Structures are given as C-alpha cells and as structure tokens.
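[job 0412] stage=fold_complex status=start
inputs:
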Amino acid sequence: MAVCVSSPTRHRHDERYQAILDTLAQIPQGYVCTYGEIAKRAGFKGQARYVGFVLKHLPEDSSIPWHRVINAAGRVSFPIDSDKYREQIRRLRGEGVPIRNGKIKLNTHMW
DNA sequence: GTTGTGACTACCA
DNA sequence: ATGGTAGCCACAA
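[job 0412] stage=fold_complex status=done
writing structure:
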C-alpha cells in the first residue's frame, strides 16, 4: 500500500484550507470569533496563524466575513493607522458589534 | 534542510 | 490594564 506523501499542491486544495473557509463562512452576522477558535472549530486546534494566512490570501471578491475575525485580546489585528483596521471596525459597527476603546467583549459577542 | 516571517496565543512582570 | 516574550505552526525563499 502507498505511503501518505505530502501533496505538492498546498492550500486552496487541501482539506485544511477548505475546512477553515467553511468555518469562517458560518460566523453569524453581529458576532465575532478569534483566529484560534476558528482553527479549533475547523478541527485544527493550535493553528491560529494559519487562519490568519488563509484570510490574508482571500480573493477580493470573497464573500467570507473576514471582518468578524479578531484576536484573542478582543482587538482587530491590523495596525491602528491602517485602512484595513478602519474598514474592519466600520464593518463590525455596521453589524451592531460594540467596540469600546478598540476592544470587543468576547464574553458576549463571541460566536 | 535552514531561516525569516506572520491578520496568533498564553503567560508573566 | 499593558507591554514583552517564548512557543507555535505553516509558508516561502
């Protein structure tokens, strides 16, 4: 029988990538989720950074709610002075997610 | 194989 | 609360 070899075609084709995308797509509007939690839910606990990688490479036209993903500190993971940061904050507020001093309460708004 | 990097985290001062 | 950091895991060069 054949030995399991690492596939030459990475992400976008492997199970992990798809599982992460599927999980991200499920985050309800008005809620947020952390990178680590997404990884765990997708079945890849401990791979929070990979979730970040997936999000970073999402196509512009993707329907994935990337703005609903924040870090474990309850903060947006973009530089405060960046357009991406402002865009994410704007979108979250647009969904009714309260943000005080740049922080979101995971206790009540975590998916 | 090694090294640098990152939309991360848990832990600790 | 806040800033620093070691650990972590996957990717790209």
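[job 0412] summary: The radius of gyration of chain A is 15 Å.
[job 0412] exit 0
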